[in-house]
Specification:
The chain has 92 residues and is mainly alpha-helical. It has one domain. 57% of the residues lie in helices and 0% in strands. The protein has helices spanning 5-10, 20-25, 36-40, 47-55, 66-91. The longest helix has 26 residues, at 66-91. It is globular and about 40 Å long.
Length: 92
């Protein structure tokens, strides 16, 4: 499965933003740098990642409190660690 502009747009919250976990699933570190979307489009991913990405729609947002932000940072770090392990397993 491939990241497309349509897929990324579908994951936006009603405020037009993404959660830290969604960025992590796309392989983008927080804060995202200019051109992040262009870098993601065309990358290959799996269906489980896309399903999780879309399920997280609306979990970020402008009214997020500190407790949710800390939890989301922990999730994002866990996702990044899992991606690192998957890449490592691929090369072993």
């Amino acid at each position: 499965m491939e990241w497309t502009n349509e897929l990324i747009e579908e994951g936006k919250s009603k405020f037009g933003d993404f959660s830290l976990s969604q960025f992590a699933l796309m392989g983008i570190k927080w804060p995202p740098k200019k051109g992040w979307k262009r870098a993601v489009i065309g990358r290959i991913t799996d269906q489980a990642t896309v399903k999780t990405f879309l399920a997280l729609k609306g979990t970020g947002g402008r009214k997020r409190d500190l407790k949710n932000l800390e939890r989301e940072k922990a999730i994002a770090e866990a996702v990044r660690e899992q991606q690192r392990e998957m890449r490592q397993d691929k090369w072993d």
